[in-house]
C-alpha cells in the first residue's frame, strides 16, 4: 500500500470505531438515565436508593449511621432527564434540577455523586458523594 493511501484507511477505521462507540454510548445512555431517574424519584424508598449507590459512595454516606437513615429524605431536585453523557465507565446525567454522576460496576451503573450543582470552572458541589 502506498504512503498516500494509509491516512485514508486509518481515517475510515476511526470512523467505524466512532460508530461502534456511539452505539454503545446510546445503549449505555438508556441504562444510565434509568438509574439516575430511579435515584432521583421521590417515591423510591431509602433502601432502594442506597442500593443504587456505588460502593465508595455507599461507604461515605454510611459512615456515621446506616445509609437508609442518611439518605431517607434527601432534598432531591430531580425532574426530566435533559442530557446524558457517557465516557467509557463513567457518566453524567443532567436532570431538570440536579446533576448525577455514575460509574459502571459489575452490578451495573451506580451513582457516585448526586444533588450536584455546577460551580463555574470549579468541580461540582455534591451533597451525596465519596471523598
Q: Strands across the major sheet, in which order? A: 1-2-3-4-5
> How far apart lie the N and C ends?
53 Å
Q: What is the chains' assembly state?
A: single chain
**What's the total helix number?**
4
Topology, number of strands: 5
The number of domains is: 1
Q: What is the beta-strand fraction?
A: 25-35%
Helix content: 25-40%
CA radius of gyration is: 18 Å
Overall morphology: globular
Element string (H = helix, E = strand)? HHHHEEEEE
Q: What low-confidence regions span 5 or more consecutive residues with pLDDT below 50?
A: 1-25
Could you provide a short overview of the structure?
This protein is of the alpha+beta class and 131 residues long. It has one domain. It has four helices and five strands; from the N terminus they run ααααβββββ.
Description:
The chain is α+β, with helices and mostly antiparallel strands. It has one domain. Helices cover about 40% and strands about 30% of the residues. It is built from four helices and five strands. It has a five-stranded antiparallel sheet with strand order 1-2-3-4-5. Strand 4 and strand 5 (about 120-130) form a beta hairpin. Residues about 1-25 have low confidence and may be disordered.
What key phrases describe this protein's structure?
4 helices; alpha+beta; 131 residues; 31% strand; disordered N terminus; five-stranded antiparallel beta sheet
Give the topology, please.
Elements lengths: L5 H35 L5 H6 L3 H7 L5 H4 L10 E7 L2 E6 L3 E7 L2 E12 L2 E8 L2
Antiparallel strand pairs: 1-2, 2-3, 3-4, 4-5
Amino acid at each position: 500500500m502506498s504512503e498516500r493511501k494509509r491516512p485514508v484507511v486509518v481515517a475510515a477505521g476511526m470512523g467505524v470505531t466512532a460508530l461502534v462507540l456511539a452505539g454503545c454510548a446510546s445503549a449505555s445512555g438508556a441504562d444510565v438515565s434509568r438509574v439516575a431517574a430511579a435515584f432521583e424519584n421521590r417515591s423510591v424508598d431509602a433502601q432502594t436508593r442506597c442500593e443504587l449507590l456505588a460502593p465508595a459512595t455507599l461507604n461515605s454516606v454510611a459512615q456515621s449511621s446506616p445509609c437508609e437513615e442518611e439518605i431517607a429524605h434527601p432534598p432531591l431536585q430531580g425532574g426530566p432527564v435533559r442530557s446524558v453523557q457517557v465516557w467509557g465507565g463513567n457518566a453524567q446525567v443532567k436532570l431538570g434540577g440536579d446533576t448525577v454522576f455514575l460509574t459502571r460496576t459489575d452490578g451495573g451503573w451506580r451513582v457516585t455523586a448526586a444533588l450536584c450543582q455546577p460551580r463555574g470552572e470549579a468541580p461540582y458541589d455534591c451533597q451525596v458523594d465519596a471523598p
